[in-house]
Amino acid sequence: MLMDNRPIGVFDSGLGGLSTVRAMKKLLPGEDIIYFGDTGRVPYGTRSNETVETYAAQDIKFLQSFSCKMIVAACGTVSTAAANVLHSTKEPSTGIAKPSAKAAVNATKNKNIGVMGTSATVNSGAFDKEIAALLPEAKVTSVSCPLLVSLVESNWIDIDDEVTNAAVKRYITPILNSGADTIILGCTHFPILAPIIQKIAGDGVTLIDSGLEEARYVGEVLREKGMQNDAAHHGTQRFFVSDKTQNFVDVARVLLGEDISDKCEFVDIFKVI
Fold first, then answer.
1. Has 145 been annotated as catalytic?
2. pLDDT tens-place string over residues 12-37
3. pLDDT at 257
4. At what angle do helices 97-107 and 126-134 cross, to 10 degrees?
5. Is residue 243 left, alpha or beta, with left meaning phi > 0 and alpha meaning psi from -120 to 50?
6. In what order do the strands lie in the sheet with 33-37?
7. Given its phi and psi angles, is residue 239 left (phi above 0), alpha (psi -120 to 50 degrees) or beta?
8. Any idea which of 32-36, 88-92, 173-177, 267-271 has the lowest mean pLDDT?
9. DSSP state, 228?
């Protein structure tokens, strides 16, 4: 069987995409990963579609410089507001919308689904469209949760953090009031807050981890196209950020369970595109 030892390119506006990397490391341990976190321009979710498209094109160009075999937008905003840019790559590519919508449709029992996303994601209506294509009779309640990205980037992720708990409760109340039994965490930052969200939502609500579902989909694509790396290979990761590395490394230590300070580099995105 032919093997493809090129890396997978993953990008996000910041460090939320590490939830996808974490899942990929577990599900695809033989794959090498190049990660770019655009921490100098985070968040994307409050930007115009035109700006998000520009940023996404630049991020993709940077990853393509490593000859990546697949491009993964571990960013709900790019996946929805800049889908045309993402899907115009010469390499196979994916965002989080389609894999997450499929998982939600499979999980819901009452056909009532909630979506938590950034403003750009919610305004795009992309999750609504993906869900409707799979389950036309589904009721979808989407809520913009812009503060949550900043809370994650600031490492305010402790399950008992009062500010984060208050923000989550305020955001998901309309979803819970709608009767949703399934909630898509439609931004890869949000699975990091899953313990808080689950605590407030209750055990009767199923959370869809967008990073996990995206990682599963990446594995499916690689298998279908015969693009897997050698199964005996121990996958490696390199991380690049467009602002100082320290905060990224500190949060990554919590999210990935390892110190990546020797794997994380600053890159001036404007000088490499």
1. no
2. 999 999 999 999 999 999 999 999 99
3. 86
4. 50
5. beta
6. 93-94, 70-73, 8-12, 33-37, 237-241, 264-266
7. beta
8. 267-271
9. P
Contact 49, 126 (CB under 8 A): no
Q: Which of 68, 75, 145, 264 is catalytic?
A: 75
Q: Are 158 and 83 in contact (CB under 8 A)?
A: no
In DSSP terms, which residues pair with 141 in a beta bridge? Answer: 114
Element (H, E) at 34: strand 33-37
| Residue 255 banded pLDDT, cuts 50, 70, 90 | confident
- Is 75 a known active-site residue? yes
251 pLDDT higher than 90: no
Question: From the candidates 68, 145, 187, 264, which is the catalytic residue?
Answer: 187
Give buried/exposed letters for 100-129 (b at 16+ CB in 10 A, else e).
bbbbbbeebeebbbbbbbbbbbbebebbbe
Stretch (H or E) spanning 184? strand 182-185
Tell me, yes or no, if the pTM score tops 0.70: yes
Mean of pLDDT over the chain? 95
Which among 186, 170, 180 has a CA at the least distance from the CA of 202?
180
Compute the distance between CA of residue 73 and CA of residue 95 in angstroms, rounded to an integer.
5
* Residue 55, CA atoms < 13 Å, CB-side half-sphere: 29
For residues 45 and 121, the answer to whether their CB atoms sit within 8 Å is: yes
Specify the pLDDT at position 1: 56
Per-residue pLDDT at 270: 86
The length of the chain, given as a count of residues: 273
Closest CA to 76 of 198, 221, 208, 185: 185
Whether the pLDDT of residue 249 is over 70: the answer is yes
d(CA 1, CA 12): 32
